[in-house]
C-alpha cells in the first residue's frame, strides 16, 4: 500500500484543513495509507516532539471529521530553519523512509513548495548517503527510490502565478470587506476618513479586490505604485468625492505598498496627509492577523477539497520523470501545472517590482 503524507507549511490560511481532510480521505478511498506531518517541515525533520509525541502520524478517515469548517491548520504549521540545510533534509528523508512514506503533498506558499521540489531532486542522493552512513539499509530504501511531491497553494495573499485563486484568499477577502464595512459605519457617522492596511507584501490582490468590493476612494498596491504626486492626486479625488456629498473616505493600503522609488508608504503616512492637508478626521486601522483567521468561506472549502483530492490523484499517476505538479484552479477548472514554473513566474513579479519595472509587474499579473 502506498503511503501518502500531507503537510501544511508557511503561513496558515483558511481552507487548509479542508485540503488535509480531502487528501486523507481520497488517499484512503484509493487504498493508500494517509499520514499527516505536524508542524510543517519541523515535524518532518524532528519526527517526534519534545514530549516524545509522533509528529508524523497515520490518519484514519475519522481523524479529519469536522475539519471543513475550521480556520487555520489543525495539523500545525511552522517555519523551519533546519529544512533549509541539507542536514535537515537528510533527517527528514530518514524519518520518511522509516515510516515507508515516499509521497508528500504540501499545502503552503512558494517557499514551502520550492523546498519540497529541492527535497525531491536530492532524494536519491540523500538516501544513498543515509545508507553509506549506516543509518538506513539498502533494503529500507529499495521500494522508495523516488519521491513524489505535489503542491497545493495555501496563501491568503493569492500570490501564486498560474492559479486564479489560492486556498484562503477568498476567506481573507471576505473578512477584510466585513471589517471595512464596520469602519465605514463609524466613518459615515462621524464623517471620518479611514486608512485600512491589509496584508500583501508583493501582491496587491487583497487590497485591489477589497477596494473594489467596498467602493474605496483610493488603493495603494505594490505592483502599481502611485504617481510621485500621489498626495495631490489622492487629495483631489477625495475632495471631489466629499464635494459630491460623500461622508466617508476609505483608503486601502497593501502592507507592501511603496512609492515608485520603493520607499514604503505606511498607512500612517496616508492618514497624516488626509488629516493635516485635507483637514479630515482621519484614522488608521491595521487589520493584521484578523485577516488570516476564522471560519473558511464556501469557496475555500470547495477549493481545498477539490485540490486535495486532485493532489492524491496526481501522486498516483505521476511517474518519476513527471515534474512535480502544483494543483491550480484556472477558469473554474482544477488543473495541474509544473510546480517550479509556477514558483518561477511568481518570483518574476517580485523581481520586476524590485527592479522598478512596474509595467512588467502589472503585465505579469494581467497574464495570470
Ligand atoms: P508564506 O507565503 O505564507 O510565507 P511560504 O511557504 O512561502 O509561505 P516560507 O517561510 O518561505 O513560507 O517557507 C516555509 C518553510 O519552507 C521554511 O521555513 C523552510 O523550512 C521551507 N523552505 C522555504 N524555502 C526553502 C528552500 N529554498 N529550501 C528548503 N526549504 C525551504
Automatic annotation (TrEMBL):
Substrate binds at residues 155-157, 192, 199-201, 255, 283, 289-292. The active site is at 157 (proton acceptor). It is found in: Cytoplasm. Coiled coil: none annotated. Its main location: cytoplasm. GO terms for cellular component: 6-phosphofructokinase complex; mitochondrion. Keywords: Allosteric enzyme, ATP-binding, Cytoplasm, Glycolysis, Kinase, Magnesium, Metal-binding, Nucleotide-binding, Transferase. GO terms for molecular function: 6-phosphofructokinase activity; AMP binding; ATP binding; fructose-6-phosphate binding; identical protein binding; metal ion binding; monosaccharide binding. ATP binds at residues 11, 79-80, 109-112. Residues 3-315 form the Phosphofructokinase domain. One of its GO terms (biological process) is canonical glycolysis. Residues 1-368 are annotated as: N-terminal catalytic PFK domain 1. The keyword Repeat does not apply. Mg(2+) binds at residue 110. Belongs to the phosphofructokinase type A (PFKA) family. ATP-dependent PFK group I subfamily. Eukaryotic two domain clade 'E' sub-subfamily. Belongs to the phosphofructokinase type A (PFKA) family. ATP-dependent PFK group I subfamily. Eukaryotic two domain clade "E" sub-subfamily. Homotetramer. Catalyzes the phosphorylation of D-fructose 6-phosphate to fructose 1,6-bisphosphate by ATP, the first committing step of glycolysis. This is ATP-dependent 6-phosphofructokinase. The lineage of its organism: Eukaryota, Fungi, Dikarya, Ascomycota, Pezizomycotina.
